[in-house]
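Blinded run. Sample ID left blank on purpose so nobody reads anything into the name before looking at the predicted structure. Input follows.
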Amino acid sequence: MIVIKVGGGKELNIDAIVEDIAGLRAAGKPLLLVHGGAETTNEVAEALGHPPQFVTSESGYVSRRTDRRTLEIFEMVYCGQLNKMWVEKLQRAGVNAVGLSGLDGRVFEGKRKDTLRVRVDGKRLVLRDDWTGTVERVNTQLLTLLIDAGYFPVLTPPGASDQGEAINVDGDRAAAMVAAAFNAEALVILSNVPGLLAAFPDESSLIRSIPRAKADNFMQYAEGRMKKKVMGAVEAIGEGVQRVIFADGRIEKPISAALDGGGTQIA
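Blinded prediction complete.
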């Protein structure tokens, strides 16, 4: 199994990714797609008069503050607009795609963090009415049922709490858990940079290879959203995924290029 995670950046070459998926499937490669869409969600939230809020955890990670209204907007964009965009494009390319959120069939399941401990201006605060969580279990039975029947699952957050509530989960870390659950050959993480950069945003500073045992040491080079991607990669490697690749989603045949040695390879 090869798990592909695609971010939501506007610079990504969606049509090239779809064409590559269709070609790889035709060649007999088992694939599964997880997509995000934070950038579009931010735009829609602004337009609806509920602009996004971002908070910094006590451990230094930036995440979206997810109150109930934000969760509703999140579901509207991820599960509606973007998920069905991917499904339509894949169907037009001859791939019998099925779009699912992690809430459907509890594909992504974990515990809800109903309180969030953050730092604001150096002060510790506890935020309540938060609808976020971390994926702890993946419903591989449902996904295998679809894959064995010839369908191509297209997955997206949110996930389900252990109480059945919708929760905002990080797409990169969810993809890592999917890859781990299937003992994947590779997890390919596509974004709008060529891989992990030693001197962001200088694309000539691409780090081409990271030893598995030292993956956690490279968090120092991760900027912005890349922090969660590196965290997901470290988790996937720790769970036995054979190879994780940070790769360029703007080029032609981006998945094939990554599998052929492009991007940043953790192997």
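Unblinding after everyone has recorded impressions. DSSP finds seven helices and 16 strands in the chain.
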